[in-house]
Amino acid sequence: MKSLQDDRVGTGSSQRPGSPNKGAGTARVKARPADRIFRFLSTGSAGLIMVILAGVALFLIIKAGPAIVANWSTTTDLSGGTTHGFSSFWAYVGPLIWGTLFSALIALVLGAPVAIGIALFISHYAPRRLAGVLGYLVDLLAAVPSVVFGLWGIFVIRPFLIPFQDWLNQYLGWIPLFSGPVSRTGSTMLAGGVVLAVMILPIITSISREIFLQTPRLHEEAALALGSTKWEMVKLAVFPYARSGIVSATLLGLGRALGETMAIALIMSPSLVFSVQMITDTRNSQTIAANIALNFPESNDLQRDGLIATGLALFVISFGVNFIARLVIARTGGPRRAKKSARLTPASDATSLLTADAAESPVSIRSEQAARDAEAGDERTELAAEQNEDR
Amino acid sequence: MSATAIPNSRRPRGPVPNALTSAQLPRFVELYTLLAALAVSAAVLAMIGFNIVGWLVLTAVIYLVGLGILSSVVENRRKATDRVIRGVVTIAFLLALIPLVSTLVTVIAGGAPALTWDFITKTGGSVFNPQTLKVTVVQGAWQAIVGTLIVTGIAAVISIPIGILAAIYLVEYAQPTQWMARTVTFLVDVMTGIPSIVAGLFAFSLFTLIVGPKAFSGFSASVALSVLMIPIVIRSTEEMLKLVSNDLREASFALGVTKFSTIVRIVLPTAIAGIITGVMLAISRVIGETAPIFIAASFTDNFNANPFSGAMQTLPVMAYSGYKFPSQDIAASYQSAWGAALLLVILVVILNLIARIVARVFAPKGLR
Prior knowledge:
heterodimer, A: about 400 residues, mainly alpha, disordered C terminus, B: about 375 residues, about 5% strand, flat, disordered N terminus
């Protein structure tokens, strides 16, 4: 007992480095070097993250440099093969950037509404007991390797879309997107976009689902108590709360679609042009990632540098998209901060929450709720209170 | 009925009719409508020409329109909207199941014929016979299986300690307001969004600059995968450490236990199930990455178990190159591509199962 007390005193004072009370406890002598080493290791690992990311940017820039500054029409290494006919790096990367953005946009337009619908189904419509299993099923989509999706796209989606593309061209061919000549193989931008949409479904779904589930229960119950139908409740309580979350989830999905390689590389028959046509064989805008994957093995050194330079462009674009997504989350107090406040209340147990409320005075509940929401970066409760008074 | 509904929607403040007595559709109306829609669309398509996709699409459309009209006639417009939206959301979910089921069926159907004992245990490739001047393709994935395990194993060995230690720093040591903690959190978010092919290009550039040209190696691919894996490990570990109750830490400190011992003896054991699950899922995520391995380790038909020199074959790259750069016997190449894809899916499923089991086994009693 005596020695234990000594230990406590010793470690207690060891919190202050350089304290005069040296060697008072046995535990301290043993623990302190390990403590310091461990602290150093974990801080070092965190620092390593910065080093790695800086290294990624640095090595890409070093490697890409020669190709960016070179004159592409006169340099012999660059004037032939896959890089033939481009005056400079910018002329080469321009169509690629366009193709990357365009394919990601198609994927987003096709995938995001479905993904948000799925998230809503799992969080608010599915039977409670099944919700977990159904969510797991959608998450399984994320576990399927991208090359498997690519092969699936080739053998299933391509032939499946051919009649649909004919139909699109026949009736909507006057829109530039669907102008012909229609592909007979199905290796089109549209097929690539559909597979990309499937691949970004799970990421958008899982983030939106988390945020939908974090909607304050009292908001939902208030809406229902006012007699709204389920959809009106979702419109009134869930969507306003989750708006920023949906935006950032969509942007993260966009980031994933921008960098996805295999679906496009395997499915689409590419060409380096600015084109909005989606259903042709010859005028599909190639994406950066697929272009790298296709040309990398057969390129010479300088051409590889050129490909790395396009990779650098992709890095910058997806960095920008992710940056904006994180900014949206940070500014509106997104999921991570909200999660902390959600843990304060037993969200799954509605009855105990209600009885707990009933035990307290209404005023304190409201102010407490407002304080809690303000902590979560959410001023809606206060706003709602003001609006109520106005009425 | 609709005559009473329309003024109601115009005057929300007016007297509300008793919901119990106002018109409602029968309880299982959605089921009835679905059956009717199935029957009607089948009948319509039977006249034009039946195909299953058209049948399902037409059923969905008829179901939504029919239910909407029915509900707006019998009930009111608000309830009709509600029912239609419920239908739309459910259809969205079913739509997501189609690619999942279709992918799995396709991979199993395509890969099962290729998946023999010889395929798993033999090194594949083209064999040139000088007598007959013919190239025969031996189907085999042994070199790719070994390569995948080596590359992913090294990536895991690099990423897991760094990821877990960095997460410990973020949760246990750093103050949330500190510049370094904020920067690291932000950079981890950014790293999560790095396109996988960029990670491959990074590893290629790094090793080309250090080792020299043609520096394809398994280790280089491992570095590329680590760049992708570290942020996933950090994220999941961080979440798990945050779930550990602060009371446990404070109780430990109050007993005079040092911070190191508290973390290693109290915090980590409490969170270990979640951490291992997260790590397993991270491995299963990177094991299927094709582009970075393809760039950093290239592809080959030769057996190469040395991660530090020479190109290395892996399962995802085998699936990709088998289709995109087939050998002379195209059918055989396609078949081995499918076989590799199926093996990869099996590996991912096994890793996911291990993650589930580990979560059960290691969960501390009373917490989960």
